[in-house]
Design brief:
266 residues; mainly alpha; two-stranded antiparallel ribbon
């Protein structure tokens, strides 16, 4: 029977990342998106963007929760893989221990990042709906909308903060795939398919490219944002779920069986 944790993780990765990618594509490729009006903080345009964010807030919050849960279910089979490849802690304990550290670290950091996203969205909604953002210094009936512009700047700063924390996800996946591939190549027994490990290296390499694209967005946002988005679609909606489903088939067969006669795992 396939491993349940792998299947749940695959499903959650597909759902959460599909929602986040669809939202990103809607924001940046919609006909109403205008980077010029955004950079010059045009009040009407900002109001339009905040209305859109308000409509999508519940969906994005749900996607953040699903992604955190995906990492939770992803962590368990990775720990099992590390234990099996280490021969029960008898071979290359440092390498396999680092696999476990990256799995646990990725889960905790991703959970932290998603909790920060939830807090950011709730605080932004409260500020937008309850505070005076239209008239700060004008004594006439006109609106200066300084508060709205300040809120947008603060919001983008927190987006940047969570983006870099979230980027650790790609680094963790790269390290996990690289170490599994290295361990399997030197293993005395083929616990898992070499093709599966090689496929994992493809995913890891693409994760590293995505991480690099996130860094290079500072230099050319449009180009490297498009590259990052394209690779994210391939990696998180197709490749990683397939890798997890493949693992779910192999993992039950690779787990050691307990022998009551020898009081040990075989």
């Amino acid at each position: 029977m396939p491993d349940t944790s792998c299947l749940i993780a695959a499903l959650l990765f597909v759902l959460s990342n599909a929602i986040e990618i669809a939202f990103t594509a809607k924001v940046y490729y919609d006909s109403n998106y205008n980077v010029g009006e955004w950079e010059t903080m045009q009040a009407d345009y900002l109001e339009q963007q905040w209305a859109f964010r308000g409509n999508m807030r519940s969906l994005l919050s749900g996607a953040a929760f699903l992604n955190a849960m995906a990492w939770f279910f992803f962590c368990a089979p990775i720990l099992q893989v590390a234990w099996i490849l280490s021969g029960g802690g008898k071979r290359s304990t440092g390498l396999h221990g680092f696999i476990a550290v990256m799995a646990l670290g990725g889960t905790l950091i991703e959970l932290l990042a998603k909790l920060m996203v939830l807090g950011r969205e709730q605080a932004a909604a409260f500020l937008k709906g309850s505070f005076n953002l239209q008239n700060w210094i004008s004594s006439s009936n006109g609106f200066d909308n300084i508060g709205l512009r300040v809120l947008e700047m603060a919001y983008m700063m927190t987006v940047g903060l969570t983006m870099w924390i979230d980027a650790f996800e790609w680094f963790a996946i790269f390290c996990i795939m690289l170490l599994i591939y290295s361990s399997l190549r030197g293993a005395p027994e083929q616990y898992f398919s070499p093709a599966w490990a090689a496929f994992g290296m493809v995913i890891g390499s693409l994760s590293l490219v995505t991480l690099s694209s996130s860094v290079l967005q500072i230099k050319n946002y449009t180009l490297f944002h498009d590259i990052s988005l394209l690779i994210s679609i391939c990696n998180t909606i197709f490749f990683l779920p397939v890798w997890l489903i493949w693992l779910s088939i192999q993992l039950p067969k690779s787990q050691p069986q307990y022998s009551e006669e020898n009081d040990t795992f075989l």
